[in-house]
Design goal:
By secondary structure, the chain is of the alpha/beta class. It has helices at residues 16-23, 41-50, 64-76, 122-127, 139-147, 163-171, 173-182, 184-206, 230-236, 238-250, 267-274, 289-292, 308-313, 316-330, 350-362, and strands at residues 80-83, 94-97, 109-112, 153-156, 211-217, 255-258, 278-280, 301-303, 336-337. It has a seven-stranded parallel beta sheet, with helices on both faces. Strand 6, helix 11 and strand 7 form a beta-alpha-beta unit. The radius of gyration is 20 Å and the shape is globular.
Length: 365
């Protein structure tokens, strides 16, 4: 790769310890640290192809996807890779439509049925093919534990902590709303079963030394409020995250939470009871991350916040100005990592995403 092949003006060397310290708000970091829940695979592949990141790798090697991930993350300037258990099969009712994004997803775009999930009765609860934690593998974590460069860490994420999501997906959102009135015992049974799955999953993940941070992902809200009432979240969802955070903290790891939607009604619960160390996923129509820095940003780290709709619509100069302004407000004192408001979706213009990353790499406080 020649210098002309690199879209970034400022070189960055990963430093997972400084990244973790930034999240833990130990002080203003020496440089901007970047974070994303994930890059859609189509985006990662487009970057790898454009910048020849896969030269010298054997696509037939079983470790090729992991090698590709390391190369892509280092190229972009991330201090980590994100990995959980290899798979936790939980079949759901889905519909598939054609993907119209610029980098189309092979097989189309999948949506969970919001009306009726696979569990709407006790009979279906008993028949559901619940996975056996003892059969779940962690081959990817084992590979990273042995081969990940020393200046990077693993963020343990995936295969646990989806308490609100799987309550909604397993029952169907409409069914869940009715069940919260007339089948609360079934809702409780599903929540308890999820806890029974996720505790051993996180135990496995925490057994790997290269896992330095834990990141739970669990969408709980929409534009104007949570998907179910705050008291129902406190009964069926937040105890699960409290347990995940307790396990992470007992192992000396921070606990981050990704959750979409308007969660103002439970922010104090998340900080004071669950004890999350950082919150991810911010949408301008709900909460501009810059406005949270003086308030909740003094009690937890704020992650991401460059709105996806903005990235899709704005020109490069406007994106760069927004990044600089966000960093001016959010960087002092630490507790902020730059990234999109949600994830690097395959419909974001690639050059817009790269401009955001480049401006963060160039930034000097």
């Amino acid at each position: 790769m020649t210098q002309l092949d690199v879209p970034f003006a400022t070189p960055v060397t990963p430093n997972w310890e400084a990244f973790r310290d930034c999240i833990m708000r130990t002080g203003t970091p020496k440089r901007v640290h970047h974070i994303e829940l994930f890059l859609d695979r189509e985006v990662q592949e487009a970057i790898c192809q454009r910048y020849h990141l896969l030269d010298g790798l054997d696509s037939g090697d079983p470790a090729f996807p992991l090698q590709r991930m390391v190369r892509a993350q280092r190229f972009l300037g991330y201090d980590y890779v994100r990995q959980g258990v290899d798979d936790l099969p939980m079949p759901l009712n889905r519909a598939v439509t054609e993907d119209t994004a610029a980098y189309q997803r092979e097989g189309g775009r999948s949506y969970v049925d919001e009306t009726r999930g696979p569990i709407t009765s006790w009979e279906e609860f008993e028949r559901y093919p619940w996975p056996d934690p003892a059969e779940v593998t962690t081959n990817a974590l084992t590979w990273y534990d042995r081969h990940l460069p020393d200046d990077m860490c693993v963020i343990g994420s995936g295969g646990f902590a989806h308490f609100a999501e799987y309550l909604t997906w397993l029952m169907g959102y409409e069914t869940l709303c009715y069940a919260l009135y007339d089948q609360r015992d079934l809702v409780r049974a599903i929540a308890d079963r999820l806890m029974g799955l996720y505790v051993p999953m996180l135990e496995r993940i925490l057994s790997y030394d290269r896992v330095k941070i834990v990141w739970g992902s669990d969408d709980m809200g929409f534009k104007t409020g949570p998907m179910i009432g705050p008291n129902d979240l406190r009964e069926f969802v937040l105890p699960g995250h409290r347990k995940m955070a307790e396990m992470a903290h007992a192992a000396g790891r921070p606990y981050l939470l990704h959750s979409c939607g308007n969660l103002f009604s439970i922010y104090d619960d998340l900080i004071d009871d669950v004890k999350i160390d950082a919150k991810h996923s911010f949408e301008d129509t709900i909460e501009d991350v810059r406005e949270l820095k003086p308030t909740y940003g003094q009690r937890m780290a704020l992650l991401g916040g460059i709105d996806l709709d903005f990235l899709c619509r704005a020109d490069e100069a406007t994106i760069r100005a927004r990044v600089r302004n966000t960093l001016d407000i959010c960087m002092p004192g630490g507790g902020y990592c730059l990234g999109t408001g949600n994830s690097v979706a395959n419909y974001i213009p690639l050059n817009s995403y790269l401009a955001m990353v480049d401006e963060g790499r160039n930034y000097v406080l």
